[in-house]
Design a protein that fits this description.
Layout: H1 6-27, E1 48-51, E2 56-59, E3 62-66, E4 70-71, E5 87-97, E6 108-113, E7 119-121, E8 141-150, E9 157-164, E10 167-174
Parallel strand pairs: 1-10
Antiparallel strand pairs: 2-3, 3-5, 4-5, 5-8, 6-9, 7-8, 9-10
């Protein structure tokens, strides 16, 4: 029997190591894959459904009113204007905080839809700046302008969903 040289032993060792690594990776699935982390987010049914210009008591002294929409022509300085909405509507949101604690505006949001048509925020000019960033003190009232652009024509349905804290208000009407 012939003795193996040092080089041959090194080649055999390398082949065994590589073969073992390949075999281990093929048979070892490693740690368990994480469970599916996607979360189903269910839309909450609105606390109440109202029309435009109808004040609503959300409880705890908080009232909300959304004025009837008015049509406007966005400027080139407004957000999302590149989406070229068919119609753009602005409305005033009035919030009264008759409660005993400040209302944090990070808990306030607004979403618009028009049937199957896409709607999006159109803000940043013409005094249409959206919700304030500072908290509304107890006993205070604020009115701010909000604008939406929709790929829908005047007279088509317009539904706004206003979320204030744990309350969700649906406001139904038509595009101006």
């Amino acid at each position: 029997m012939k003795k193996l040289s040092r080089k041959q032993w090194i080649i055999i060792a390398v082949v065994v190591l590589i073969g073992g690594a390949i075999l281990r990776s093929a048979t070892n699935s490693g740690p368990e894959l994480p469970a599916d982390t996607t979360t189903l987010v269910q839309e909450e049914a609105p606390t109440a459904t109202i029309g435009f210009d109808s004040p609503l008591d959300l409880g705890n002294g908080v009232f909300v009113t959304v004025s009837a929409p008015t049509r406007f022509t966005p400027t080139t300085f407004m957000t999302n204007i590149d989406q070229k909405p068919k119609t753009s509507n602005a409305f005033d949101v009035i919030i009264k905080n008759g409660g005993s604690t400040p209302l944090d505006f990070t808990t306030v949001s607004l979403e618009a839809v028009s049937g199957a048509n896409v709607c999006f925020d159109v803000l940043g000019d013409l005094d249409i700046n959206g919700a304030p960033t500072e908290a509304l003190k107890a006993g205070g009232e604020i009115s701010y302008k909000y604008g939406v652009g929709c790929q829908a024509a005047a007279g088509e349905p317009l539904t706004l969903t206003v979320r204030i804290g744990e309350s969700t208000v649906q406001v139904d009407g038509k595009i101006a």
